UniProtKB/TrEMBL annotation:
Gene3D superfamilies, sorted: 1.10.1740.10, Winged helix-like DNA-binding domain superfamily/Winged helix DNA-binding domain
Domain RNA polymerase sigma factor 70 region 4 type: 128-180
MF terms (GO), sorted A to Z: DNA binding; sigma factor activity
Organism annotation: Arachidicoccus rhizosphaerae
Pfam families the UniProt entry points to: Sigma70_r2, Sigma70_r4_2
Upper classification of the organism: Bacteria, Pseudomonadati, Bacteroidota, Chitinophagia, Chitinophagales
Translocase as UniProt keyword: no
Full protein name: RNA polymerase sigma-70 factor, ECF subfamily
Residue ranges of every copy of the RNA polymerase sigma-70 region domain listed in the record: 27-92
Length: 202
């Protein structure tokens, strides 16, 4: 086993057993270029290939505690890339629908109107849950999310501010959105209770 393999295995072990985000970030930086080239063979588009690689690393991070037995790390990552490509189109469709809904909501916001009391309560309830979800993010994920979504900064500007690579910023952004999605899904009952309560009241 050469020095590079030993180094990679140590990073993988630290990420899996110690939840070491810095070690995982180094793995991401190390493998991103070659995995991107591999993904491009399937997607033919760079932006899609980047999405695939980021999703693979995100999923590895989420199930890091169960990856301690992985022996051939590079082979595992390449296989994961192939599996992730099959899910790409489905995610793109969902993203397109989300953009359409966001555009419709923005259009409604541009037409000021007095919200009925029950709609105001429901909106405030949603904002409270979203705020809790954001506060539940790791410090780096929270910072990337706030700079990107709340201030409108580009990934390049965020990378310069945080003194990391653009790829690392993209990974934190993907991880943040995934964490927010899981948090909101786990709190669906809270929204249901709020909506049901308002329904009974009115």
């Amino acid at each position: 086993m050469d020095h590079q393999e030993v180094y990679v295995k140590q990073l993988w072990s630290d990420a899996a057993t110690k939840s070491d985000a810095n070690a995982f970030g180094q793995l991401f930086e190390l493998y991103f270029p070659k995995l991107l080239i591999f993904a491009l063979k399937y997607t033919r588009e760079r932006c899609q290939a980047e999405d695939v690689v980021q999703q693979v690393f995100l999923k590895c991070w989420e199930k890091r505690n169960s990856l301690t037995a992985v022996d051939n790390i590079e082979a595992y990552l390449y296989k994961s890339i192939k599996n992730e490509v099959t899910d790409l189109l489905r995610r793109q469709v969902l993203h397109s629908k989300y953009q359409q809904q966001t555009a419709a909501q923005q259009q409604n916001l541009e037409q000021p109107r007095a919200l009925p009391n029950h709609e105001l309560k429901l909106r405030l309830g949603r904002e409270e849950i979203l705020s809790a979800a954001i506060n539940d993010l790791s410090p780096q994920q929270k910072r990337v999310y706030q700079l990107s979504k709340e201030r409108g900064w580009s990934y390049a500007r965020i990378a310069q501010e945080m003194e990391v690579s653009t790829h690392t910023v993209k990974w934190h952004a993907s991880a943040a959105l995934q964490s927010l999605s899981h948090f909101l899904k786990n709190h669906e009952n809270d929204l249901f209770v709020l909506i049901f309560g308002l329904f009974l009241f009115f």
